[in-house]
Specification:
Layout: E1 3-7, H1 19-35, H2 39-53, H3 56-64, H4 68-74, H5 89-96, E2 104-109, H6 113-122, E3 131-134, H7 148-158, E4 166-170, H8 173-181, E5 185-189, E6 204-206, H9 212-215
Parallel strand pairs: 1-2, 1-4, 2-3, 4-5, 5-6
Helix pairs in contact: 1-2, 2-3
């Protein structure tokens, strides 16, 4: 059975919630406190690692031997999500419109499992996903998107054998290009407040999750005659 793999980073809620801004501040603070950097130096190194590895923590572990679980406790798990996230009835209706006899639904996140589960619970949709593939900070070595091993792990977790059965949504052009390169059918989410990339990152580009029934009608009950 095909699987719809949803990248969790910010796609389930609008960037207007400023959660990424809050996280960026906590990441910069972690760099400053643990590497004795100025704010500008911390932000520059943070962005460098994000662009090189897809995740700041990977650069920290590779080059500075930090404890990723300690990092998680001071960054992802320290976010005051309860103040900005609440159950989203529209999102729940969208997900419930999926025909689960035709497609399974999976989360793929570069965050640790605690953060991933916390987000979907606060949004009131935690019971609608079949599972989650996360960046395992507790492992001796870990990988994250856009590394091909992260996508391969998601396929292994979901039990999907063919890349052609994977349908993926992400707001990162880097992640979308990597997934598409592996044969996944990919939709790049670019919110209305953002400039789309000059070169499309994937076959599909959407401005909202609510466009998904139009590009993947075969999976939505409301689009079936």
């Amino acid at each position: 059975m095909p699987v719809a793999i949803h990248s969790q980073a910010v796609q389930l809620y609008s960037k207007s919630r400023k959660i990424q801004d809050m996280m960026s501040e906590l990441i910069d603070k972690y760099f400053m406190d643990n590497l004795s950097l100025s704010q500008s130096e911390a932000n520059e190194l943070h962005m460098k690692y994000y662009k090189e590895y897809g995740l700041a923590i990977e650069g920290l572990v590779r080059h500075h031997k930090v404890d990723p679980l300690e990092y998680n406790s001071k960054v992802d798990d320290a976010l005051p999500l309860e103040k900005v996230l609440a159950p989203d009835p529209d999102l729940r209706r969208l997900i419930m419109d999926l025909d689960r006899s035709r497609v399974n639904l999976w989360l793929l996140t570069n965050a640790y499992v605690t953060h991933g589960k916390r987000v979907v619970k606060l949004l009131g949709v935690d019971d609608l996903f079949d599972g989650i593939t996360f960046c395992d900070y507790s492992a001796k070595t870990f990988v994250c998107k856009p590394h091909h091993k992260m996508y391969e792990r998601a396929m292994q977790d979901t039990g999907v054998k063919s890349p052609g059965q994977c349908y993926f949504v992400d707001d990162s052009a880097l992640n979308c290009r990597a997934a598409q390169g592996l044969g996944w059918t990919t939709a790049h989410l670019v919110e209305m407040t953002e400039e789309p990339p000059k070169e499309p990152a994937s076959r599909f580009q959407i401005r909202s999750l609510y466009e998904l029934p139009n590009i993947f009608p075969q999976f939505f009950k409301s689009k079936q005659s």
